[in-house]
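Notes, p. 3: input format for complexes.
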Amino acid sequence: MTTYLSSEAHQKVALALKDYLADATLVYFKTHTFHWNVEGPHFYSLHLMFEKFYETIWESLDEIAERVRALGEKTPPNLEALLKMASLKESVTNLDAPKMVTILHEDYLALAKKAHEVGAIAESFGDQVTTDIMTEKATFLEKAAWMLQASMTK
Ligand SMILES: [Fe+2]
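Output follows (154 residues plus fe (ii) ion):
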């Protein structure tokens, strides 16, 4: 726990981070399954692009979870508990490549918005460390969303 934040701040910011962690975990796994299952004439470039994205999101999960611990809270103990907190939707099967790109584009923008919201909550409590972490997440997600959008252009 920090020495400069209130106990309410620790709890509320950690809760917002856990919500974000749930959606980010879902988006991580969705991106990785798309990396495995994508097919079509753009297979290799999409396979590689999805790989870059899921690697970055995977690293972010650790950073977010460890910030929760630094704020004195525990992370959800298992996937079931974690995914109950998610608001984004799981993927369905048999998607073609353009649909995968569209879904990730929407999910990344939704997750970026969530990152901004978590950052704003943290900022309202004076937790600049969490705000900075979330700005970094949003920066990556908005760049990734642009790259997905650019790959949809005919
Ligand atoms: Fe792989």
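The longest helix spans residues 7-37.
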